[in-house]
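Async update (no meeting this week)

Hi team, since we skipped the sync, here's where things stand on the single-chain job. The sequence we agreed to prioritize is pasted below, unchanged from the tracker. I ran it this morning and attached the output directly underneath so nobody has to dig for it. Comments welcome in thread, and please keep replies under the output.
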Amino acid sequence: MYEITTTRHNHLVDSTLHAWSWQIPTYLFLGGLVAGMMLISGYFLFKGRYKENNCSCYYLPLFSIVLLSLGMLFLFLDLEHKAYFWRLYTTFQITSPMSWGAWILILVYPALILNILMRVPKPLINKIPKLKNLSDEFLKHPFGIKITGIINMILGGMVGMYTGILLSSLGARPLWSSAVLWLLFLVSGLSGAAAFVHLIAKNVYERELLAKADNGFLVIELFVIAMLIIGLLTSSKSHMAAALILLSGPFASSFWVFVLGLGIVIPLIIQLLAVNHKIHHTPVAPIMVILGGLILRFVIVAAGQYSHWF
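Output:
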């Protein structure tokens, strides 16, 4: 029975990546973005920033639910055997990344809803007035709010790691066969989320804080990309060939120009100047970071399918 169930799980994983498509990298990007937003929102809850009326922790969960649902829709659309997706929820396979991801994504929704209950949107309160009393009662318990923040951070971190582990578990592609791919996707998701919050935050302190944090994330992302490339170049010939696909092969221009240049280095320089008050903060750098994170997923997924062992 275990072998049959495991085979079904592997078949579902294979069907999500049966051919290059835009749905999978977009899903991975949205998942990473939501993971980063959950980590940021959870951190703000834990640190007590919910006491600020314009704290981003009040509206980030709304964005997260919409973006995560959109990402899961894209994943469903890419499945080759859509009628069997429900089998993921009939069991839990500890060795299957797809099984872990499916259950983690289900747990994310209650955590986000719990966060939303701290300040229920007015249209919903107008329809269900009792939610206002529930929200007011929730805010009277700081310990419960901190626990909510911790839960959001834990689940956010798990979602961010899962987006990378999902690819690295598929050993048929040498480019994905890296122990740091999960870390790259996690840091990239955090960077994209920090840029997004920097872009939309109503609180000036949060905009400044997240611009500084994003600079740190971008530096770490450069370091992780370097570790990924070095790890591939110092491994087998197939891994070396996979690295060269990014460095000098068909995806080199996208990798060097859009991922590294426009997605990391240039926005990092702009934001370093901005946080040191050399220039004014503008939406340019955050938008570049977000687009760079999206292109990173497209390049990794496409180049990975282009790489092979022989």
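Quick observations from my side:
The CA atoms of residues 16 and 79 lie 5 Å apart.
Confidence is low (pLDDT under 50) at residues 1-19.
Reply here if anything looks off.
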